[in-house]
Design brief:
Blueprint: H1 2-9, H2 15-41, E1 77-82, H3 88-96, E2 109-117, H4 124-130, E3 133-139, H5 145-159, E4 165-170, E5 173-175, H6 177-187, E6 192-196, E7 228-235, H7 239-249, H8 256-259, H9 263-274, E8 279-281, E9 294-296, E10 299-301, E11 304-306, H10 313-322
Parallel strand pairs: 1-2, 1-4, 2-3, 6-8
Antiparallel strand pairs: 4-7, 5-11, 6-7, 9-10
């Protein structure tokens, strides 16, 4: 036994001396695991080798009954809500709150949802009940967000040519449509894009973020001025068509990676810059879950607010409207 203890003592070590080394090793291991988690959790949006074959672009197609959704001659404002096929509950909540026909002038304003397709969800039955969903052939994927906005522009040019203003809104926003109606009446002759346009234009190169854009996709380190927050309005009858024409010069139809750029950057920044369409900033478009207002004329106005939950959209709408009307 004594000999065994002597032999074991030869391999003994000083725990106090080893402790700092163990701490450093564990810290480095944690950093490694965090980095691996970041790589695995951020979706691979862009292709390493871009697909630049024009014939690979899948043209936007609408359901056969698309003509039934065309705007009448009296419609001057089209509100295009970009939604996913499975967001039935959210669409119902919108119809009962800020998107209710009681909230706007139905003779001159039209609200439509633009959805894509999935293999497990069909909006045909819902559309038979409500008649406000423009069905497209866009596959419901994060990287296809720009294609739904493209669908809204194409629809506006083909089926609503007399519309003076086109509001593009994400489904998780609440809108004060009456405020958009007033804006459209005042400024429809001036081609522009109005929204929250005072945003940072630095291209994000951090590969661990959702908005990472590699240099081989967009080589310049700053985007053109663009409008963000999930909602913006294209003012002017010809503005949608001008953006569609500019997309050709932006390689939209030739480059898969270009189509995967952030939707707001692509349409309100890159395409708008190529088309020489001015961007008009308004603080009334809020990124947050509380209203922000802009001073327009002698009164304040709030256009939109972010609302990730559908639990009480009516209260969100009431707060949005209440924020408008106060004197500047």
């Amino acid at each position: 036994m004594w000999r065994l203890l002597q032999k074991a003592s030869q391999y003994s070590f000083d725990l106090d001396a080893l402790f700092p080394t163990v701490v450093v090793v564990l810290f480095l291991l944690r950093l490694f695991l965090v980095a691996i988690h970041g790589v695995l959790s951020v979706p691979a949006v862009f292709l390493d080798s871009d697909n630049t074959q024009r014939d690979r672009f899948r043209q936007i197609r609408f359901a056969e009954n698309v003509d039934a959704f065309a705007c009448g001659d009296d419609v001057v404002l089209l509100v295009a809500v970009v939604s996913t096929a499975e967001e039935y509950d959210r669409r119902v909540a919108i119809r009962r709150s800020w998107g209710s026909p009681l909230r706007y002038n139905v003779s001159s304003t039209k609200l439509l949802f633009f959805t894509g397709v999935t293999h497990y969800h069909n909006n045909a039955e819902e559309n038979a009940d409500f008649g406000d969903i423009v069905l497209t052939n866009v596959h419901e994927r994060y990287r296809n967000l720009s294609l739904k906005t493209l669908a809204a522009l194409l629809f506006a040019r083909r089926h609503c040519p007399r519309v003076r203003c086109l509001v593009k809104a994400d489904s998780d926003n609440v809108l004060n449509i009456a405020a958009f109606e007033r804006l459209c009446r005042k400024h429809y002759e001036d081609a522009s894009i109005t929204g929250h346009c005072e945003v940072k234009t630095n291209v994000i190169r951090d590969r661990f973020t959702k908005w990472y854009v590699p240099e081989h996709v967009y080589g310049v380190n700053r985007y053109p001025r663009y409008c963000s927050s999930g909602t913006y309005v294209l003012v002017g009858q010809k503005t949608p068509g001008k953006l569609l024409d500019a997309l050709r010069r932006a390689s939209f139809y030739d480059s898969e990676n270009t189509r995967r750029l952030p939707e707001d950057v692509l349409f309100t920044g890159i395409a708008a810059s190529l088309a020489s369409i001015p961007r008009v900033h308004s603080a009334g478009f809020s990124f947050w879950e509380w209203p922000m207002t802009a001073c327009e004329g002698s009164h304040r106005v709030a256009y939109s607010v972010h609302a990730p939950s559908t639990s009480d959209l009516l209260s969100e709408y009431d707060r949005l409207v209440a924020a408008s009307g106060a004197p500047c």
